[in-house]
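Changelog note: in this version the structure field was regenerated for every chain. One regenerated record is shown below for reference.
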Amino acid sequence: MFTIYNTLTNQKEKFKSLHKGKVNFYSCGPTVYDYAHIGNLRTYIFADTVKRVLEFDGYEVKHIMNITDVGHLTDDDLNQADSGDDKMIKAMKRLSAKSSDGKEKIIPETIAKFYTKAFMDDIEKLNLEKANFYPRATAHVPQMIKIVEGLIAKGYAYEKNGNVFYDLDKFPSYGKLSNKKLEELKLGARLDDHPDKKHPYDFALWLKAPKNHILKWDSPWGEGYPGWHIECTAMSMEYLGETLDLHTGGEDNIFPHHENEIAQSEAYSKKPFSNYWAHPRHLLIDGKKMSKSKGNFYRLQNIVDKGYSPMAFRLLILSAHYRSNLNFTWKGMDQAQKNLEKITKFVNHLKENLPETKKETNLTERSTKTADDLFTDLHPDECLEKFSLAVNDDLNTPLALSIVYRLIGKINKLPELTPKQAEALWQWWERVNKVLGLKIESSKIKEEKIPQEIIDLSSKREKVRKDKDFDLADKLREKILSKGYNLEDTPSGPLITKK
């Protein structure tokens, strides 16, 4: 039985979906005005792990992750996100300033496509399962307008001068997710005092667009653009219905974004918006929250450039419980890489001993006895049961990994396995890896005659990488590439192939 900490009730609960065997799952996706940083990626790895555990338990999961390409304003950390530039417009200004002559025309659509592709590349490298659909905000403006019209008709929203705001006084249960009560907001929280608001704590559903504003649409209230929060309501209802089983996002989304989603969605449908809410904690840098505005962040590519596998980063994230802050360090990445190498050795050891590649007659009496002792001590079925209990207990991935490492450590000490044992272990590994989601490189090297000069350059590069001289390592890599050979870093060592 899967249990998860429900932010809505502030307690761990047994998960029960609306429809037996099926889960409607919505997770907040990227705002595609810049690259995702590794703090963002922790949130997406968490959502992927939730989905994998549900599928491990036999659920059919329908997963929607939105792409925000309009409406997310820059001041959302300070107030209700009704002021500041749209982040897409901000990106357009930034990239135009960096163009060759400063005059190159860069449009939001081009920016959104570029950073959406970068995001998709990142999640592919991290082996995240694809969502069923990635709806874009700009493709769902009619659905947003329909909901805003409905909220006005029901008395939960009001229009003035082309702007539409949600009247929070009409939703008395506001704050049930974040525990930020409306009374606290009324007492002077830092809010945007827009001249057309009845109250400073009301939030925008639709904003009037200035004449020179690029992202704007026709609406019953004139040309304008949607508020950030209405996007997720419109897209989740479009693809998953009016009540979700599960909604996830980073902890900084709890307020105001998810709180506002609940207010507008439940006022519109008169139904609960989501039965379960789950939020991973921040990934920190030097003990501080990662932020693009502060510049204290890394991208996945920065990690790869230092010679680490994306799978090592995935392991690093899984090594901490999602409800604990995780401080990112390169020492932590070193350990994650070593753990990945241990797993890689195990997986390749199994492949070499599977029935189709190894005959039982090749085994010595001593190695067989050692393997039999192992199975008596810790059978894979028992490990699988313990693993399942761990991941189903509010995604206790650190405990689950410790169970995996215990068995793998014993297997890696064995010189050989019987094909029958290898097959049993392989079935175990495939089951646990459905949750872990690791892509493991084969240790087999392509049979190509590599010149000694290239081998020597690769060996020298490995030495300088270990000495952390990454500039020289990059130069040696370029030299190998210039001589007509590809060089791929794998957990088992460098793989050299002819171009």
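Spot check on this record: The longest strand covers residues 22-27. The chain has three domains: 16-280, 330-436, 452-498.
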